[in-house]
Amino acid sequence: VLGHSAPRDATDGDQGVGAHKDGGFLMPLLQCDRTVAAQAISILGSNSPGNADPIAGGYW
Q1: pLDDT of 2-56, one tens digit each?
Q2: Rounded CA gap, 48 and 25, in Å?
Q3: Do the domain assignments include residue 32?
Q4: pLDDT confidence of residue 18
Q5: What is the pLDDT of residue 42?
Q6: How would you write the chain as a 3-class SS string?
Q7: How far is Cα of residue 58 from the mean position of the Cα atoms in its chain?
Q8: What is the pLDDT, as a whole number, of residue 26?
């Protein structure tokens, strides 16, 4: 996900994303789909495979 988002944020010319570099990764996901954002957050912050799934992990 990071490898896909970072280059696009830097080169896509999307001022909405580029202007918010701190939130450039999370904001598009949150605007697009809460579940996708939850999965990305859980995967990035996960130290165990069991946390990779937000539903099974009980995030909601």
Answers
A1: 545 544 544 444 444 444 455 555 556 555 566 776 777 776 665 555 555 555 5
A2: 22
A3: yes
A4: 47
A5: 73
A6: CHHHHHHHHHHCCCHHHHCCCCCCCHHHHHHHCHHHHHHHHHHHCCCCHHHHCCCCCCCC
A7: 18
A8: 58
Instruction: Give yes or no for a contact between 5 and 28, defined as CB atoms under 8 angstroms apart.
Output: yes
Total domains in the fold of the chain: 1
Q: Which domain holds residue 37?
A: 2-52
Residue tagged 């996900």 (tokens): 1
- CB of 3 closer than 8 Å to CB of 9: no
At 17, list the tokens. 């994303």
Distance CA 26, CA 21 (A): 10
Spatial contact of 38 and 54, defined as CB atoms under 8 Å apart: yes
